[in-house]
Amino acid sequence: PAIIYRKDYRPFAWLVPETKLDFELGLDSTKVTAILSVEPNPQAEASGRIRLNGDGQAPLSVKVDGEAVNSWSVDGEDLIIPLSAESHEIEIATQIDPSANTQLEGLYASNGMLCTQCEAEGFRRITYFPDRPDVLSIFSVSMRGPADQFPVLLCNGNEVARGTTDDGIGWADWHDPWPKPSYLFALVAGNLVANSGTFTTMNGREVTLNIWVRQEDLSRTDHALESLRKSMKWDEEVFGREYDLDLYNIVAVSDFNMGAMENKGLNVFNTKYVLADEDTATDADYDAIEGVIAHEYFHNWSGNRVTCRDWFQLSLKEGFTVLRDQLFSQDMQGEAVKRIEDVRILRAAQFPEDSGPLAHPIRPDSYREISNFYTATVYNKGAEVIRMIRTMVGEARFRQGTDLYFDRHDGEAATCEDFVKAMEDGAEVDLSQFRLWYSQAGTPKVEASLLHSGDTTLLALKQEVPDTPGQSRKQPMVVPLKVALFDRDTGKHSGEQLLILDEAQKGFNFTGFDKPPILSINRGFSAPVTIQRDVPRDDLVFLAANDDDSFARYEAMQELVVGHLVAAARDSLSDTERTAGEDAIAQAMRAILADEALDDAMRGELMMLPSQTYLLEQVARDGATADPGTIHEQREGLKALLGARLAQPLRDIYERVANVPFNGEGARGALKVKTQVLTYVAASDPETAAELAARQYDQADNMTDRQGALMVLCGLDHPERTHKLLDFYTRYRGNALVIDKWFTLQALSLHPDALEHVKALAEHPDFNLKNPNRVRSLYMAFAGNPYAFHVESGEGYRLIADLILALDPINPQTAARFVPSLGKWRKIEPNRSELMRSELERIREAAKLSRDTYEQVARSLD
Ligand code: B3K
Ligand code: ZN
């Protein structure tokens, strides 16, 4: 497949001021008539024809200015119509089969309803159109279909009229006053009910809010509705953004390729990010719903009012909107814990991407299939990059920058460069060198060392941006680092400072210390870099107990454990060092358990050991390879050791938190700590853990408790495991989202037979390759279970490769998402590495591979 380059961008030759769409709806056959009013684009080179994108269809008829034309031709999937350089009306009829659309792109059937997904290039599967984000049009839509099947008919914007004919055909006309690109188009037809409410905007506009679901799900929509209201209010207060229609519809569908979609006035959501009640959703589920509802709402400005010029600019809307949703959730859920969670996600998903074969800058230079670039780099690193600007200029100037950006580019399709320029002008800052964050891939490494003499300490910083595919010899970046220096005697620091490292090496002097101070660096994770430093263990123990920056406190604990486990996994620990490391970690953990000033939500974070995936990345640093088996053993060994040594304090704390009533003060933190404690007990004393977990399961009055208990039981070879899994299945049978959890818990488990369990679950009657949530619940969980996925025989790799091959013809976008798990092969020890690589080769050899999967496999093998 052809490679598309950012440098090749040209504006489209035509403008499409208006688009009229007519749908005759049916699950198996929908007829679409599109009327496009077009005129030559004065900003582009004139052309004697118009190219309209299509995908998998043929025109039934083509008319220009009311006259049928036969002179059209097809080039690849596109339709080419000869056209003189003046205004015209083009009318095209097509017919599609939504039931046969298993890719879930374009118009498709789900559970008897019809819905759409158009970003990035799905609209061309509905009708021929210039399907690119820089062509903005005003859409009017008419639709009709059997009223009993589709009593609710929704589209973007406002409903103009609706009715039912005598012969039972329901119809509706919709109009969206805001010009938009085709990727924001949406249509929904089905038997749905709404949880409705209102929101009054800061200028007094009353907006009707609807959360549309199937009747049986209605009782689980209050949280989504409330989250929407909070998002609308917050965006007014914090970014000055007001909603711009009288209606905001959200529809939940159970077959969906990702989380949700920000279509103008008609968001389509995965049920996973809408439905919640205490019996079926965990605290984490509640938070995720709030975050995704906010994210899609915030897109109304960062994405819809100001959209992207081309798909290389994706981070313009996604990076910025992720930052906006993170800041919102920090305000709703608490800043400290939210920041730690966001960094954990970045490290788990983005760092491996940045150090692997799929590394790309947040603004990529080329792609074959744009769906492959909805990545943690574009989203999460994109958010970090804008967060750094905010850190450097401060909140007030940042707001001046975003105000100018929205004002300057409202109604336009903009670029990342436009955003940076608006920031420079609005926030009054020079971002010339900072722009490198948009073009250079790879996670910068910063080396920090302290040199002390007299009363002066020199902090020496060195940075290096590693080579990535297609990019070597990189320029030094602008790295904003928040630091504080703790006085060894008083245990205090005299204020946090922001240091800007913008050269390959730079030194900073601090005076007034009799002894070498203790360095707290990259506080709040002010820059998305890895810090490398030689630091005395005792300093980390001190910071883990005392740092006043919550993130830095968490980080000190992580650094302590990572340093120890990486050395252990590399087999480079002497017996004395091993003992010293274990003692230090146990001492730090004991202090965390005992700290009465600490709230439990934060305690739960501090108790969490670095994941095996993160450890693997650290072991495989600088071209080394890692043995996942050893990492697993060492990490489990440490857990068992801590569980045994801290048995009493762990039991005490378990009893305390177990008595905090659900929904009472501090309940969320208590629930988190409770399950954390169980994971340590499970490693050191499985029999006691099974007993505690079984009781926690039985007494649970909420899903957080129940799922936590079942998670622990799933890892144990104990009869309670079987009992509770059966109970859970029976209790929640028929509730797809909870049954997804049932699959996931087994696929993610530490049980020695997890791989066998996954193979059996793939044959379970509830398993279904056509439903992305179900596929992810089993196989994404499995691919993220390092112990089971990396079994020495290579069977785990084969399982994922077989899945990719089976899923690719059904849903290529979802299939391609599994490739990166095998693409890690260069970081793994030689035997396993060879097995992984040969599975990738087997996939590449397959007869008919989608563009999605082909691109990911080819890049992974390069
Ligand atoms: N913009 C959509 C993602 C579309 C993915 C297309 N493959 C959801 C979001 O980021 O809000
Ligand atoms: Zn988004």
From TrEMBL:
EC number: 3.4.11.2
Coiled coil feature spans: none
Zinc in keyword set: yes
Domain Peptidase M1 alanyl aminopeptidase Ig-like fold span(s) in chain numbering: 442-533
Keywords noted in UniProt: Aminopeptidase, Hydrolase, Metal-binding, Metalloprotease, Protease, Zinc
GO molecular function terms listed in the Swiss-Prot or TrEMBL record: alanyl aminopeptidase activity
Domain (Aminopeptidase N-like N-terminal) ranges: 80-184
Cofactor(s) demanded: Zn(2+)
UniProt keyword Heme present: no
Catalytic reactions of this protein: Release of an N-terminal amino acid, Xaa-|-Yaa- from a peptide, amide or arylamide. Xaa is preferably Ala, but may be most amino acids including Pro (slow action). When a terminal hydrophobic residue is followed by a prolyl residue, the two may be released as an intact Xaa-Pro dipeptide
InterPro entries: Aminopeptidase_N-like_N, Aminopeptidase_N-like_N_sf, PepN_Ig-like_sf, Peptidase_M1, Peptidase_M1_dom, Peptidase_M1_pepN, Peptidase_M1_pepN_C, Peptidase_M1_pepN_C_sf
Occurrences of domain Peptidase M1 alanyl aminopeptidase C-terminal (ranges): 538-861
Top-level taxon of the source organism: Bacteria
Residue ranges annotated for the Peptidase M1 membrane alanine aminopeptidase domain, each copy included: 224-434
One family name in Pfam for this protein: DUF3458
NCBIfam families: pepN_proteo (TIGR02414)
Family affiliation: Belongs to the peptidase M1 family.
Name used for this protein in its record: Aminopeptidase N
Species, as recorded: Altererythrobacter arenosus
